[in-house]
Amino acid sequence: MNLLAFIVMFRSDLLRCTGIAQSVLILLIVGLVGLSVGLVMMLTDPYNRLFEWKATFGSGGEMFNLWEKPPVELYLRVWLWNVTNREEFLAGKEKLRVHDVGPYVYRERFTHEKVVFNENGTMTSVPTHPLIWVPELSEGHSENDTLILPNIALLSFSNVMADASVFTRLAVNVLIRQTDSQPLVEMTAREFMFGYESPLVTLGNKFMPSWIMFEKLGLIDRMYDFAGDFETDFTGETDVKNSGLIDKYNGRPYLPHWRREEGDGPTTCSNVRFASDGTKFNSYIEPNQTLSFFRKSMCRAMPMVRVGEAKRSGMMGYKYTFKSDALDNGKVNKDNKCFCRQGHCLPEGLIDVTDCYYGFPIAVGYPHFYKADPAVINAIEGVYPDERKHETHFIIEPVSGMPLEVAVRNQINMALGDLSNMAHVTKFSHMVLPLLHTEIGMKELPSNMQVKFIIYMVILPVVTVVLTWVFLVGGLALIGVCLVAAFCNPCRPDVDVETRRNSRAWLQQDTDVNKAVRKQMPELLIVEAERHAAQLKHGMAREREMQVYRSLLAPDDGNDVSGSSNASSRRTSFEQAYC
The organism sits in which domain of life (predicted)? Predict the structure, then answer.
């Protein structure tokens, strides 16, 4: 009977301890897996791998689609410099007085057409910038507004011929008088921007078509003339930081208009490689990194520096502006000396882009002569430079390089030379004459792009970091729990000294019984297992085992005192182990 009780107790404990061991093993496996996943995420940085994959341009790629056809609302705002004292100025009574009229607003649909992927990690495309008139944003101004504006054709033609021979100048002056060309004329805003008829332009187009290849002259029309242009950009395949940046423009990494010191390589003035056309800047921008922006109408790549941070469209971005000495004439920044055309430097704040505008004496600066030489500002009435209104800035998301806000502000001027020997234009000698100023702007991303970028650039990085630490800490915690369970397991044979002494005495007294148990153990375990299963099935296993246990361990009347004591001791030990 004692043997049967021992087997019942042993089997119950065995089942209970086996369940605990299985639970501990499962937790240990889960902990190891979690720790491994956390370590892999920490070492491989899956977010950056995902971003690099998306930022590399390829046909049908998400970032490529945004670059190819940006779904942003990009607007061109134009202000025209209307002359308010034409008669007084031409009579020599007053200095020129102007007033900027506008804005005249156009939607610019900037796209990259006919994209071809090259084998060297670049792609070639044709940039297009069609303009759509938006009257509702033009604040009451109409393209049919009549203004008094400079006659660009006459002033340009006179400036080009001013250095010609005496006989040539004489012939030109006769032509000017016969055509009655005047330096300040009335025309509509649209004519000035997109083309007005001029006898001089008509003659130039007829007799010098290689120089004047257009029948009408319009300033915005010439600024947005991209016919025959193509650009080659990096896909990011070799370096994801450069995806979307310019490799070559019209087949060259430089602009041919600027002087090159040696060979055909780019210089500070002519280089356009690694510049952005504004659709996407460098990825992974460092806080002190200088960026570069290229626009054909500016005839150069403009260096930009970070001046702070700002939040736009729900994301933090770096605020960039053009370098303070970007339009220096070489007086401060010696590298800008190469912008001095034929050795002649314009006043500070102006860049001579004559060679980019068909030989017309065009100079690029900032609106209202912002950051220009005070002498230029004081020569004309009506210009009021203001940093807040007239400084260019970009707000760029630093990881993706995507612009969150854009405001590119420029002014187109005429930098005229000595016209004292030319008919009708003598009063304009050595004058910097403002023509128009523009702002190419984007206030915010479209709502669908905002949602995507917030998920990619704000939420996903946080989720990745949180998951990494959850796996690491969770895995370590589960492993720790398993270690504690292994060392503090109630199934371990930790019994007191008295129990061990009684157990040894009992085993020594019942050696023969133990041998019999070992021989009969397999059969007895099978019998007991079947009985135990039947009891569990009826929901009475634990109660009946305890009843059998107590009845079998009850002392017989015939036993001596010593035997009773040993039996009682064994019962106490078994109850402690079983319960």
Answer: Eukaryota
Q: Contact, 134 vs 105, CB < 8 A?
A: yes
> To which residue do tokens 């210089």 refer?
267
Minimal CA–CA distance to 302: which of 339, 261, 263?
339
CA dist 492 → 5, 18, 463, 486, 507 (Å)? 20, 12, 42, 9, 20
pLDDT-wise least confident of 174-188, 332-346, 443-457, 541-555: 541-555
Q: What is the pLDDT of residues 292-322, one digit of tens each?
A: 999 999 999 999 999 999 999 889 999 999 9
- Which pLDDT value is given to residue 576? 46
Who's near 532: CB < 8 A, 6+ residues apart? Answer: 8, 11, 12, 541, 545
DSSP for residue 419: -
Distance CA(372)–CA(365), nearest Å, equals 8
Asked if 43 and 224 touch (Cβ cutoff 8 Å), the reply is: no
Distance CA 212, CA 204 (A): 6
Residue 554 has pLDDT above 70, yes or no: no
pLDDT at residue 175 greater than cutoff 50: yes
Find all residues with CB under 8 Å of 57, minimum gap 6, and list them.
63, 64, 67, 123, 233, 235, 236, 237, 243, 244
Interatomic CA distance for residues 158 and 431, integer angstroms: 13
Q: How many Cβ atoms are within 10 Å of 567's Cβ, its own excluded?
A: 17
Give CA–CA dist 412/437, Å, rounded.
6
Question: What are the contacts of 521-530 at 24+ separation with CB within 8 A?
Answer: 521/7, 524/3, 524/4, 524/7, 525/7, 525/11, 528/4, 528/7, 528/8, 528/11, 529/11
224: Cβ contacts below 8 Å, ≥ 6 apart: 129, 131, 297
Q: Which amino acid is at 375?
A: A
Token pair of 553 as six digits: 């361990």
d(CA 301, CA 42): 39
3 state DSSP class of 231: strand
What is the per-residue pLDDT for 578? 41
CA–CA separation, 40 and 50 (whole Å): 15
For residue 114, what are the contacts with CB-CB under 8 A and spacing of at least 6?
Answer: 125, 126
Name the 3-class secondary structure at 255: coil
Q: What is the pLDDT of residues 484-502, one digit of tens each?
A: 877 776 555 544 444 444 5
State the CB neighbour count (10 A cutoff) for residue 473: 13
Task: Write out pLDDT tens, residues 93-146.
Answer: 999 999 999 999 999 999 999 999 999 999 999 999 999 999 999 999 999 999
pLDDT digit string (tens) for 388-419?
A: 999 999 999 999 999 999 999 999 999 999 99
Q: Which pTM does this prediction carry?
A: 0.77
Amino acid at 155: L
Segments making up each domain of the chain, as ranges = 72-116+145-445
pLDDT, mean of residues 197-213: 75
